[in-house]
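FAQ: What does the model actually see?

It sees only this:
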Amino acid sequence: MTPLAAALPPSLACAIAEDGVAILRLARPHKRNAIDDATVEGIAVCFAALPERVRSVVIHGEGEHFCAGLDLSAVTENDATAGVFHSRAWHRAFDLIESGRVPVIAVLHGAVIGGGLELAAACHIRLAEPSAYFALPEGQRGLFVGGGGSVRVPRLIGTARMLDMMLTGRTYGAEEGLAAGFAQYLVAAGTGLDRAMAMARHIATLAPLSVFAALHALPRIAEADPRTGLLMESLMAAIAAGDGEAKLRLRAFLEKRAPKVTRE
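And it is asked to produce this:
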């Protein structure tokens, strides 16, 4: 593993493996990995500075928690103007995750609340360990989500469920969170990082154009009206199938040099 060649705050650490997988660690365990301004800026720097050889990223939290959300000491004195710019800084950082070049996998354990849930929602795949719990306490603090949660979280769990969480303070454990859509996988305690790394290594072997289509075309197709979406699908399918790497992979399959899909 080699450190990322970019200056990050002490609250973050990023290293890159030879197989093209990067690991970004939230490193404020004494604060349950709560996110302050320096951490938000560091996330933006990290994803903007990923070298071309990086093909996937895993995000996890040091200690007992993934992320307990916004460090409230960072906003207690903000006026409305400062609050807008503060929120937009989170948007910029998390957009680099969601709309970046590489798939991002979040390993969730312990607290995944407030801004921590917003960070997880910006990732493409989420694995939850049994200790993970999900909450949006902003409503109990007199606040409103500001890190993209009002856009991304309803896509995962629906607007009605998010509204309930914000008004009542409801929390979800790992199993019910899986069923609700907070995560795609529930894994055994202590195995999340290894599972995520294995998944990231597999993703790193995929054709770049297929990954691009999944990250950038699929979300736009899902949000488009059906007729526009189907046209976008046809165009993306044709572009992907015409790619040189796709032709090599199809030939390998037809010549029985690539495995068929099975379920054990």
